[in-house]
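ARCHIVE CARD
CATEGORY: sequence design from structure
SOURCE FIELD: tokenized fold
FIELD CONTENT:
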């Protein structure tokens, strides 16, 4: 399929921000030219204040652009009426669900409003779509439960089911994991990736889950205030240094080798660690937290050899030699026997 036929969303010289008065405006980003394809999971990432929510609302037509246009299915969104827009894109916002007395089926059925008559009567096709949507996100068993009986993770799944029931080629989610614990954040990201592939829907989400986005997204859009949006495959953005520069901060640094952000600790001394096993990874993390700079130079006075077979750490410092059975024991040994 040609790329133009697969393109569901694109922008043309789009500028986003706020009109403060007839003559004054606050521009957050300008000249945005970007697109996404059907079946693609795109994660919008950026520091707080970079304009992610404003961008999402502008793309969805909720907030007017300062300049330029958003095209959905090859036509400017502003040229479409409300019903056309609601059949092309669905959006899940950050705000918590407040209609606690509604049943799950009733909430999901709201996604069918673009297709029902003025009475909101559901026909057989509508009910099949609702059931399918609930099955996709594993909330069918809660169909007759009221929303207040569900956990935060289950409520978020219900809102995703509502968007699926709306049956649009484009689904947009603003911080869908904001109120969830780690297991639920992982599950939601896995779910959204699976839905993009299995339903051929384009799914765009803004998120602060940087590590999960690197693992799940087909494409990442990097936003930084005052700079052009940087789109790309996650690994390309990491290798080029663009990912790191977007989130540059004195308190932490991005480690390309692990794909993780690490706290910047004040170093008290350097140390050489011999061994690259799983024990080696966690040993290095503990040592960095303790304030040691783990060096590749084998000539350091302070040397740790890891023996994964015996689950031991050997510490050598000048003429001193210690054996440790745990990382707790290792840290205790360093604190009490090594001068820094």
């Amino acid at each position: 399929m040609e790329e133009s036929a697969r393109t569901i969303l694109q922008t043309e010289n789009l500028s986003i921000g706020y009109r403060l008065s007839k003559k004054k405006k606050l521009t957050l980003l300008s000249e945005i030219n970007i697109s996404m394809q059907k079946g693609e999971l795109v994660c919008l990432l950026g520091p707080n204040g970079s304009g992610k929510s404003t961008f999402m609302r502008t793309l969805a037509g909720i907030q007017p652009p300062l300049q330029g246009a958003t095209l959905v299915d090859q036509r400017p969104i502003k040229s479409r009426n409300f019903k056309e827009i609601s059949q092309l894109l669905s959006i899940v916002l950050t705000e918590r669900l407040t209609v606690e007395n509604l049943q799950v089926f009733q909430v999901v059925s709201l996604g069918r409003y673009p297709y029902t008559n003025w009475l909101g009567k559901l026909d057989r096709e509508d009910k099949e779509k609702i059931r399918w949507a609930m099955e996709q996100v594993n909330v069918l068993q809660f169909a007759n439960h009221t929303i207040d009986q569900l956990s935060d993770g289950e409520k978020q799944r219900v809102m995703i089911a509502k968007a699926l029931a709306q049956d649009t080629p484009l689904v947009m989610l603003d911080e869908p994991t904001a109120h969830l614990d780690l297991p639920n954040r992982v599950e939601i990201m896995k779910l959204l990736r699976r839905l993009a592939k299995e339903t051929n829907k384009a799914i765009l989400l803004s998120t602060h889950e940087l590590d999960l986005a690197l693992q799940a997204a087909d494409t990442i859009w990097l936003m930084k205030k005052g700079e052009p949006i940087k789109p790309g495959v996650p690994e390309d953005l990491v290798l080029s240094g663009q990912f790191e520069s977007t989130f540059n901060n004195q308190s932490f640094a991005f480690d390309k080798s692990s794909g993780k952000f690490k706290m910047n600790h004040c170093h008290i001394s350097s140390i050489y660690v011999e061994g690259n096993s799983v024990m080696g990874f966690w040993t290095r993390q503990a040592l960095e937290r303790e304030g040691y700079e783990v060096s590749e130079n084998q000539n350091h006075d302070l040397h740790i050899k890891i023996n994964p077979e015996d689950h031991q750490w050997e510490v050598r410092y000048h003429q001193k030699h210690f054996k440790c059975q745990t990382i707790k024991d290792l840290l205790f040994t360093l604190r009490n026997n090594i001068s820094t």
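CARD ANNOTATION: Residues 3-249 form a domain with the Rossmann fold fold (CATH 3.40.50.300). The mean pLDDT is 88.
SHELF: design records, drawer C
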